[in-house]
Each structure stands twice: as C-alpha cells, then as structure tokens.
Amino acid sequence: MWFVIKGEITISVQVTNYKCPSCTGPLKFSSESGKLQCEYCENVYDVATIEALYEDANKAAAEAKEPQWDIDAAGSPWSEMEAKGLKVYNCPSCGAEIITDETTAATSCLYCGNPTVVPGQLGGNLKPDYVIPFKLNKVAAMKALKNHYNKKLLLPKEFKDENHIEEIKGVYVPFWLFDCDADAYIQYNGQKVRMWSSGDYDVTETSHYRVTREGEIYFQKVPADGSTKMPDAHMDAIEPYDYSEMVPFSTAYLPGFFADKYDVDAEESAQRVNVRMKNSTTDAFAQTVSEYTTCSVNRADIEMKQGSIKYALLPVWLLATKWKGNNYLFAMNGQTGKLIGDLPISKSKLFGWFFGIWGGMAALMGIAMFFLGFI
Fold first, then answer.
1. Would you list the domain boundaries of the chain?
2. C-alpha angle 133-136-139 in degrees, rounded to nearest 5
C-alpha cells in the first residue's frame, strides 16, 4: 500500500458522451423536437442546457493541475572514489547496461540471455538515495522458481529439462519513488433499485440520488522502474516492497549482485506515475459509494499537488532464458519473494487436457441419456 486517505474519497472519469442528468442514460438528439432526449427516463433537455453542464465539467477537469515534481531532489552525483570502483557492462545483443562492482564478471545478460558482455565505463549517472538490500538469497530464488514450474501443468517437459535455473541472478533495479498529495471532489448520479410483486404485477422502483465526495489522498513512495529493459508489468506485479527496510545507499550492498543503470529519467517516469495515482484515487473513492445499485460520475476534479522524488535501488531476482526462439523472463521480489514469470505452454498437453475434459463430459451425458431412456 503506497497511499494514505485523508477524509472522504473521490474518483476521476473523463466524459466521452452525453448522459442524462436524471438517470445517467445516454442522450440522443431528436430531429423532431430539436432537443436531447433520454432513451430510458424520456426526459428532454435543451441543447444549450446540456452543453453548459458539460462545459462546466470539462472546464473543471481541464483546470486540474498536474503535480510540479521536484526533479532535482532525486539522487545525487557519484563521488570520484565511488565511481572508480564501479563498472558498466553493455550487452552487445540487446544493449542493456548493468552496473556492477569492479570485481564482478558477467556471464550472461539478465534480460536477453546473451552469454557475452562487454565491460564499459561508468559516467554521468546519479547516485541513488536509498537501497533495499536483498533479503532472499539465490537458493530461495531457485526454490521459488522450481515451485513455480511445478504448479504449471501445461509447461513443456523439455523446457524444464533444458532450462538452467542456476543461472538466476540478483539485480538491483533502479526505481523512482514519488510522494504527492491529491485533492479530489466528485459528484455522482446514484440509483437504488427495489423490486417486488403486488398481485399480478411486478413492480420496480428506482430512486435517484445526487452523491458528493470530497477528500485528500497522500501518496507515499509510488514506484516506477527506471529501466526500459524491465517490463513495467513485471515490476508492478512483484510489488509491494516494505520500505521500512530501506536504508541510505552504499556501494557496500552491491558486491555479489548486479545493479541496473537507469535509462528512463525521473521526469519521464512521472508521466506514468501521474496516471497510477489518478487511477488509484478513482478506485479508492469509488468504494465509498458501493451502497447504490448503480453509480456514475457526473463531475470529477482531481488536483495533484507538488510532489517529491527519490531515487532507489530495489532487489529483484531475474532469469532471462530462450526456448525455441522465444524469450522468457522470470522475476521475483528479492525482499518479499513475490514472483511472476513468462512460461511456454505445451500444445500437446493443452489438447490432451481439452479432449480429456470433453471426453469425460460426453461420457457423463451418455450415461444420463441412457438412464433417461433416450438411448
């Protein structure tokens, strides 16, 4: 969890079509009346009235401010002594740049599995503010990967036999951590539907409500990985990290591991984080209007205040491997053990599973039809 809710809650939805202010049903222009008419409640509105309503909503949304991130506060320059003991290895296959200490020798690329790496020189990077040290060792990572394989019933046997689990490597992945406040205000159109029977009639009663929510959310350490070589979906999937174990950065944590060099700066990462924060605000605020049968947004304002950024290295166990011309990436949180992995599917096992189920169902149907006298 990387946000704290203060007060009430809210949601942000961009209007893409005209909805009835009474029931939120779609409005259509009637060429006969020259007005907008609701298909459900049959209310009729002047065009000018609806345009004015949506103009106010769109204006409010347009005025919502993006946070002004303090980019300069993230990271600090490497000292000459620190930089002297570090090296960069550039993969000739995919171009990944990985920072290690000067005694570490790379035997394969963490991302594409290429067995050769070319040593380079470190320069021009910011020094991380923080690091979460590896908590799980290589043995734990290999065990987790084996268990992950065993749970995949459709995994080809050849992949298990040929895969080199021992090649799993620990890497410190660069992350930008964002803190920010979000002020939000929302108006919903809520409905409560009640149905009952009265004599020969089925009665449906629909009550309409105007619901408002207003509050503040404080986001703490929202992560965004700073490497284009790391799939964002993989990094999101192995969250969260326990930031209580984060410590000031020191190169003493690097020996025995790789440290990826960021190639996505904080300013570029902020665009993705802004979307994550707004979506999280939307999801959190929507939970406060769950008592209604249906509830749609009439107006939503979310203002992101100025935030701060820190640069950190977070631990990940990685295995990049190739099988039949395809790349597969396994990633595990080096602190909590949460994992995700791309794995192939055996077509023969899949067909066998499908026809086995189909055959079983056909047999049951045949038995049922026999006892019912159809055959």
1. 1-15+68-344
2. 140
